[in-house]
Design brief:
The protein has 232 residues and is α+β, with helices and mostly antiparallel strands. The protein contains eight helices and six strands. Helix 5 crosses helix 6 and helix 6 packs across helix 7. The radius of gyration is 25 Å and the shape is elongated.
């Protein structure tokens, strides 16, 4: 297995992307997985990009450590880079293997977000979140309407994000955080339960929920019957 850190350069505007890659084939034509670099390649064409291998390593740990040194919070704030997150976190396989599921709740991550937020606040004012959301959504919708290939890329990106979110949701850390949050806010407990003060009744064909103090109608009994959905 080969481990290396690379730089992709846009020959049109000189913007760069720094990434790492593990592979059995050094000539596998890998050109990064970040959404920004993928969109740029889609826009300008693969021939307008060059890839340089900057460092090679004997293992993944050294590779991610070097990426962490280079792709810092300051690096992300540069206007000539396509990177969106600090280096050194790796993909989910690396995150799970090295018990880094709490990275995005770490002090390093919080400081990175605070630094980015400060820059955005200075540029757009106190309402920077609304400004970015409004302008970004408007531009994004127009881009998706005008460019079918871009729209398809965004669909694929959304599907990948859903898959990643699903993977994280099943980690022990996420499950424990969910339990603690539900316990803290009293989720579905007492009057917060959607069925509080109610009961299910059925006539054998259908079911409905009624106030628990209400008299059960004739022909009905307490309980619930689940009707199987038709298979179209």
């Amino acid at each position: 297995m080969f481990f290396y850190l690379y730089q992709i350069t846009n020959l049109v505007n000189n913007k760069i992307y720094i990434g790492v890659h593990s592979t059995k084939d050094m000539n596998d034509s890998y050109m990064g997985s970040g959404i920004n670099i993928q969109l740029a390649i889609k826009k300008y064409g693969i021939d307008n990009f060059k890839k340089d291998i900057l460092y090679t390593f004997d293992n993944a740990d050294d590779m991610y450590a070097k990426e962490k040194d280079i792709v810092t919070d300051e690096f992300l704030l540069r206007e000539d880079t396509y990177n969106l997150r600090v280096g050194g976190t790796g993909g989910f396989d690396y995150i799970n293997k090295n018990n880094l599921n709490g990275f995005y709740d770490s002090e390093t991550a919080r400081k990175g977000r605070q630094s980015t937020n400060a820059v955005l606040k200075e540029r757009y004012g106190e309402q920077w979140r609304k400004v970015i959301s409004k302008n970004g959504n408007k531009a994004l919708h127009k881009k998706r309407e005008d460019d079918p290939s871009f729209n398809q890329l965004m669909i694929e990106h959304s599907r990948r994000n859903v898959k990643i979110a699903s993977q994280y949701a099943n980690t022990s850390l996420a499950i424990e955080k969910k339990k603690n949050t539900f316990s803290k806010i009293g989720h579905q407990q007492g009057s917060k339960n959607s069925q509080y003060g109610k009961m299910w009744i059925t006539n054998g064909k259908e079911s409905r929920s009624i106030p628990s103090q209400e008299t059960i109608p004739e022909g009905w009994r307490r309980g619930r019957v689940r009707i199987p959905k038709p298979n179209f």
